[in-house]
Amino acid sequence: MVFNSYTFVVFFILLLVLHNLPLSWKTKKINLLVASYLFYALWNPPFILLLWLSTVVDYYMARLIAVSENKSKRKLWLTISLLLNLGMLSYFKYGGFLLENFTALLNTMGITYQAARPDIILPVGISFYTFVTLSYTIDIYRRKFAPEPSFLNFALFVTYFPHLVAGPIVRPEDLIPQFKQPRKATTNQVTWGLFLLSLGLFMKVAIADGWLAETADFIFGLPFPVNPLDAWMAVLAFSGQIFCDFAGYSTCAIGVSLCLGFTLPENFRYPYASIGFSDFWRRWHITLSTWLRDYLYIPLGGNRKSNIRTYLNLMITMLLGGLWHGASWNFVIWGGLHGIFLCIERLLRNLTTRHKTPVHESEVILRATILPVASRNLTNFLLALLTFLLINITWVFFRAKDFGSAMLMLLCMAGIIDQGPKMLSTPDMLKVGIVTVGLITTHWLMRDRDLRQVFSRLPWWLWGIIWAIMLILVALTQKSTSSFIYFQF
Amino acid sequence: MKASDNLKAGILAITLVLLFLTGWELYWRGRGFENSYNDDESLWASTRNKIYTTSPAQPVIIGSSRVKFDIDQHVWQKASGLQPVQLALVGTSPRPVLRDLGNDPDFKGTVLIGITESLFFAKDHSPMEGEANKRIEYYPKWSLSQKISFYINQILESGLIFLDTNRFSLNSLLKRLPIESRPGVFVFPNFPLEMNLTLPNRQEVFTNTSLSDTSVRDGIRYVWNYLGMTNPNIKGVSGDTLTQIFADVKQSVGKIKARGGNVFFLRMPSTGPVWVAEQACYPRKLYWDRLLQETKTDGIHFTDYASLSKYTCPDWSHLTPGDARIFTNDLIKVLEEKTGWTIKNPSVSSHL
C-alpha cells in the first residue's frame, strides 16, 4: 500500500478510529501489528512469510546471544541471524545480478555458459527491514542493551507500517521504548502529523510525480544523445524528483506515525544546501548513513587507523552503500563517486587544517573585505552550489539504466556531444527551473532551522492557507497511485 | 504554538480545500462538461482480467481509437447479451497487446484487431507502443491495494468531473497555457477539452458539444493535420522492417489460433483528407491485403461493404455515437456472414 492512494486513506482513518478506542494498550499494539501486516500484504501477500521468518529468527537469536556467555556460541547465533537476513537479501535482490556477472566472467574467460534468467521478484522494502532487524541482533551482540522480552513489541518494531517499506531505518532504541508505555497522540501531535502527511504527499504527488517525473523519465528513456540543456534539465528534474519522492515518503511516514503517538527519526535535513559531501550525508537519508557508519564504517576501523585505511574504509562503506540501493554496477559507481568526493574533501580538510591561520587573524582579514558579513555566507552558498552540481553528476549513474546511457548523458551535459536534438518544451523546462530554484532556496533558508519552529512562529491562518494550497495542488495533480522510487530498493 | 492554533489551522485548511474543490467542480459543470473516466492502467487491467471467458459473441477488441469510438459496446451487448472486452488504446499500436495475448497460455478466445495503418505498422519500440507496453507491464503487478484504490476511484469519478486526469489535472491544464515552445521542439498538440468522453467500459464517444460546435471539430482536425495524418507524402514502413512486422504478427496470431482461439482484422472507416492520405501512404495491396495473406487470417475492410462505408466521420477519423450504433449492428451482421460465427443471441436480440 502506498500513502498516496485511496486505499491508504480508508486504512488510515479506520486505524486512527481503532487506535483511539478505549482498548487496552496490548490490544492497541496487536491492532497496529495486524494493520502493519495488512499494509504489507496488500502489495504482495506471500512475501509476508519472509517478514515473519526474519522477525521470529532474529527475536530468538537475540535472546540466545544475550543468555550465552560462551563467545563462540554468541558468534554462532549472530552468524545465523546475519546469514538468514543477508542471505534473503542476497537471493532476492542480488541473485540475478550475481548470476549475470558470473556468466559474463566465465564468457570472458572463454568458457561458454548461459544461465537461465532467474525470475525473482524483489519483496518490497526488504533492504529496509533487513537493516532494521540486523541492527537489533548486532546491538544485542555488542551488549548495547538487553533483548526485548515481549515478542509483540519486537514484532511491532520490525513491522510497524510507517517505516516498513521505505524507512526511516529505525533502531531498536528509537521505537521499542515507545511501545512499552501506553501512548496517545496529543492534539498538537495529530495536527502536526497530518500537516507532515500533507507536506509529504505534496512533495511526492505534486512535485515529484506531477512536475518532474515526466521530464526525467522522457529524457533518460531516450536511446540517443540530446541537446546539453535538455540533458541538464533531465538531471535537475531527477535531482528534484528523487528528493521530493524519498523525503516525501519519509515525511509522510513521520507524520502518520505521529498521529498514532509515535515519533520516528528524522531522515532528511535540507540536503541540497549541503556544504560538501560529508555534510550531504548528514542531511540525506540520515538513517541509512548513520546505519552504515555504526555497523560498517566504524567496525572496519573508521578513522582510528592510518590515513590510507580511513580512505579505504570510506570507499568500502560508500561502495556497499551504493550497492544497497540496487543490484547494478551503476549504483556501485554512484556510491564510488560519493566515496571519492568524501575522500577528496577529507584530504582537503586535512591539508587546510595543517596550514590553518589563527582564528582571530582570519577574522581580521574577513572584516577587511568589502562585504565582510556576506562573504562567508556567499562562500558557503557557492560551496553549496558546487556540492549540488557534483551531486547532480552522481545522480546520472543513479538514474540511467546502464553505464553506456549514463556516459552518454554526461557527455551531453559536458557539451562534448552537442549535436543532439532539443526535446523539452518550454513549459517542461520552466517547471524544472522553478522547482530547482525553489528547492535550493528553501534548503538554503531552512539549512539551520527546524520546520516545526518556523511554523510555530506563523499566524495560524497563514499556516492554514499554506496547508490548504498544498492539499489543493495534490488534489489537482491527481497522480494517486504511483509508487515511491525507494520501494524498489 | 498552542494546540488550539494548530487545530484552527487544520480546520481552516480543510474548509479552504472543500470550498475550492466545490467551486472547481461547479466551474467545470457550469461550462457544460460531463463525467469522463480516466482510461489509466488500472481501468485497462480491470478489463484485461475479463479476457478468459471470451467467445465470438464476446470478443476481445484491440486496436487504437477507431475501434473504441466505432464499436458501440452497448449495442453489441444488446445483440449478443455479452459485453465485448475493450482493450484498445488511443493513439497506440495494438501489436504489443496482440503479443501479450499470444503469449498468455490461458487465452483461447476471439480477438478483433482494429487496424489504423500509421499505428499498427509503426516500428518496434516506437513511441506508438509506449502506452501499450506500460499497461502490459502494469497488469501482472496490479496489487490488491491498487485494486481497492481503483474501485474507490471509480465511485469518486462517477460523481466528480474534475477528477478526469486527461482533461482537468494541473499538468493537463498547464500544457494548454499559451507558452511558445523552443524552436525545433516537437510538442504534442492538445485535443480540444470538449472532444470526447471515456465511459466506464472504456468506450469513447464524442461529446454533444464536439458534434455541434464546429470550432471543436476544427480543433481535432487541426491536430490530425499537425500530426501529419492528412499528409499523403509520409510513406509507411517497408522492406525488412515491414516483413519483420508481418512475421511478428503472424507468430502471435498463430499462437492464439493454435490454442483454438479466433483472430479477425477490422479496418474501420476514415474519411476526407485522412482517408486520402492513408490510401497514399499505406496502399491497401501492400499493407492490408498482405497482412491478411501473410497471417492467413480474415478481415473486414470498410470499403468492401456499402453498409460500413456510408458514413462521414466528423473529424475524418471516428464515427459519431449515433453512427457507431448503426455501424455496430451492421458490423455484427457482416461478421456473422463472413465467419459463420454466432454473435447474436436470439433470446436477447428479440427483446430489442
Give your account of this protein's structure:
The complex is a heterodimer of chains A (489) and B (352). Chain A is an all-alpha fold and 489 residues long. Chain A has helices at 6-19, 25-41, 48-67, 71-108, 126-141, 151-159, 161-164, 172-180, 187-220, 228-259, 277-280, 286-297, 307-325, 329-354, 359-368, 372-399, 403-413, 426-446, 451-456, 460-477. In chain A, α4 packs antiparallel against α5, α10 crosses α16 and α12 packs across α13 (307-325). The two termini of chain A are 16 Å apart. The relative contact order of chain A is 0.11. With 352 residues, chain B is an alpha/beta fold. Chain B is 51% helix and 7% strand. Chain B has helices spanning 3-30, 41-48, 65-70, 73-80, 95-103, 117-120, 130-138, 144-159, 165-168, 170-175, 208-212, 214-226, 239-258, 272-281, 285-295, 321-339, 346-349; strands at 60-62, 85-86, 110-114, 196-198, 204-206, 262-267, 299-301. Chain B has a 5-stranded parallel sheet. A two-stranded antiparallel ribbon of chain B has the order 4-5. The mean pLDDT of chain B is 92. At the A-B interface, α1, α9, α18 and α20 of A face α1, α8 and α10 of B.
